[in-house]
Amino acid sequence: MQLERIAVRLRRRTPWEALDLGHAMLRAWAVPAYRAWLGTYWVTGLVLLAIFHARQEIALLVLWWLKPLFDRILLFTFSRSLFRAPTPFREVLSALPRLIGKTGLLSALTLRRFSMARSFLLPVWQLEEQHGKAARARFQVLSRRIRGNAVWLTFVCVNLNTVLGFSLIMVVEALRPQGMGEAFSFAHWFGDDLAPGQAFLGSLLVMVAESLVEPFYVASGFALYLHRRSELEGWDMELAFRRLADRGAPTGRTRAAAGLTAAALLAIGLALAPGPAEAEATPSPPHEASRPKQTIDRILADPVFGQKTEKPTWRWRQDKEDSPGKAPDWMKGLLGFMEFSSQILRALAWIGLVLLAAWLIHLVILYRERRLGGKALPAAPPEFLFGLDLRPDSLPADIPGAARAALAAGQIDKAMGFLYRGALAALIHRQQVEFQPGDTESDCRHRLRGRLEAAAGRYFDRLLSAWQDTAYARRPPPLPELEGLCRDWAGFFGPSSPGKSP
Fold it and tell me: Which pLDDT band, with edges at 50, 70 and 90, does 237 fall under?
């Protein structure tokens, strides 16, 4: 991982500051994020609305269930933007097969669909490519002292999404011109007599609310993950040491910190002048009855006042008072909502039964494997660890010889790289040490406990210390020690070296 290319400032933060960093990341990378979101989420949503045009609530339910897939697309764009890599839409489309097949999407849509920390743990599945037992162990390490913040993030975003959706509906209703009828009616919203245009407009408003909240949710979860990784692995300290080493290196050059500070502050004030307000007309005091009833009858008997005419007028049906024995509209709406909720609960119950059956089948398969002595297929060895290429074809045939030649040429970094990469490759391919793609250098040392002979373990510790001093601190060991590492390498990690069985 090339930390010097990272686009955010790594420093000590509280978890709440890390969540706020996610908001800043979304503002900075909004163009690639929303380009990928509009090209996938909205296209899928419009297709589903066209398919289920008669029951658009089904389309919204399917779209909501597929949100883990769209979260992976957002995280793909955020992870590339983190290292200042452009993300055109064609790369998003080319990455879709891997995002669907290799990031644990199936379990995210079933067993872990209701996880309250899914945006925080998503990078473990997608970026670290951890699965199974290794993923669960990684979850436990990352979640210590910070899982509560991830749960609160999910809780707040779910409620914010709901409130925002209803607020948009209320805004549309408030902006409706008088005389056009109701755009939305609670009494009709959950019934079968909702107009197709109203249902389609409501579905679009729900998708707008999702588009405003979900990118923020994924970005904040990713920022929380970066905060935890930096806290565990000391990324900020490593970057500081690298800067100090580069500043004090005897290269004869001084890096000029040339920064052009552009402070252009534009204050835009929109003065909204209040519209002219009409003063409330003061009602005239009612005339007191000063005439007896006879005078009133005489006036009404006059032909001017005594004529009766019938004039037809238009009147809204909902303005008519409910007839006796007929249920009011609010009760109809409540009954419709209860019926709709019962259908949703029934669907969730069936989904729960299917998931329970799948879990039981999984337990039966595990039991049979243990009973019959079956073993799971070994995982493919990692080709890269913390940025180092461990593929056998990337290493020279004579690793100690190549390291001595690099030392003779003054390329100490290259020599240490040959020895360290060769040792890791030998441990993976010849001694069958199961390193994981997300392991750090300390994790690798921990996995080697009890797997090497005592002398080989001491040599690996010497090699690791020399590699870290050379690569990170820019303080290579003395030349005799480096030559000793080259001389002793073949005895511990060469083709004929003895290895301790797993």
Answer: low
Same domain, 398 and 371: no
- Helix or strand (DSSP H, E) at 222: helix 196-233
In terms of domains, do 364 and 389 share one?
Answer: no
Q: Which residue has the higher pLDDT, 247 or 202?
A: 202
Residue 394 vs residue 64, higher pLDDT:
64
Q: Give the count of domains, the chain.
A: 3
457 lies in a domain? yes
Q: Are residues 336 and 424 in the same domain?
A: no
Task: Name the strand (E) or helix (H) holding 186.
Answer: helix 186-189
- Mean of all residue pLDDT scores within the chain: 75
* Mean pLDDT score, 94-103: 88
For 230-293, what is the HEC assignment?
A: HHHHCHHHHHHHHHHHHHHCCCCCCCCCCCCCCCCCCCCCCCCCCCCCCCCCCCCCCCCCCCCH
Q: What count of other Cβ atoms lies within 10 Å of the Cβ of residue 34?
A: 17
pLDDT at 267 over 70: no
C-alpha to C-alpha distance for 222 and 218, rounded to whole angstroms: 6
pLDDT, greater one: 300 or 92: 92
Do 346 and 450 have their domain in common?
Answer: no
Tell me whether residue 392 is in a domain.
yes
- Could you say which DSSP state residue 378 is in? P
Q: What is residue 496's predicted lDDT score, i.e. its pLDDT?
A: 57
Residue 207 — very low, low, confident or very high, per pLDDT cuts 50/70/90?
very high
115 and 27 in a single domain? The answer is yes
* Arithmetic mean of pLDDT, 68-81: 92
Q: What is the mean pLDDT of residues 205-214?
A: 93
Among candidates 160, 191, 68, which has minimal Cα distance to 118?
A: 68
Print the domain residue range for 336: 331-376
14 and 161 fall within a common domain: yes
Say which amino acid occupies 452.
Answer: L
Q: Could you tell me if residue 26 is inside a domain? A: yes
In this structure, the answer to whether residues 365 and 410 fall within a common structural domain is: no
Secondary structure (DSSP) of 438-453: T--HHHHHHHTTTTS-
N residues, the chain: 502
DSSP 194: -
192 or 79, higher pLDDT: 79
The C-alpha atoms of residue 431 and residue 502 are separated, in whole angstroms, by 8
For residues 407 and 418, give the distance between their C-alpha atoms in angstroms, rounded to a whole number.
11
> Are residues 55 and 156 located together in one domain of the fold?
yes
Which secondary structure element, helix H or strand E, spans residue 355, and what is its range?
Answer: helix 329-372
Sorted by sequence, the CB contacts under 8 Å of residue 368 that are 6+ apart come out as 374
What residue spans of 38-146 are helical by DSSP H? 43-51, 56-65, 67-82, 89-101, 105-109, 118-126, 132-143
